[in-house]
Write a structure and sequence with these properties.
62% helix, 6 helices, mainly alpha, 0% strand
């Protein structure tokens, strides 16, 4: 049982599935939380840019698990994961903000879309 998803009505099944699948992979290779790809991104960059809440939670928990095994401060490791810059100097938080902004700009109900309709 997962301590984060106690109120099942609030959490969508997709979030739970993403958390579970990411956790299985993460537990098989705990160090993968910090593995970088060819652009310097760690898995948290991708999960944040996709808006995948379940995977983000699992990867942050992975950062905590790795820090606990090495004796470092788990809160600092979560912050370190969230602020790890890739080769373009983008953090996972930057990538999450980019996703939210792109959703807002492209939404038919967004302020920008509504404003452009009234201005013309």
């Amino acid at each position: 049982k997962n301590p984060f998803f106690t109120d099942v009505e609030v959490v969508s099944p997709n979030v739970i599935r993403a958390y579970s699948s990411t956790t299985i992979i993460r537990q098989a290779h705990p160090g993968a939380v910090w593995d970088r790809d060819c652009e310097g991104e760690i898995p948290l960059h991708a999960a944040a840019s996709w808006g995948n809440v379940g995977s983000v939670l699992s990867l942050l928990m992975g950062a905590v698990a790795v820090s606990n095994s090495s004796g470092s401060n788990s809160c600092l490791e979560v912050a370190r994961a969230a602020l790890t810059a890739d080769d373009r100097r983008k953090t996972p938080l930057d990538r999450a903000c980019e996703r939210v902004c792109s959703m807002c700009v492209h939404s038919k109900d967004s302020f920008l879309v509504q404003h452009s309709k009234t201005a013309s």
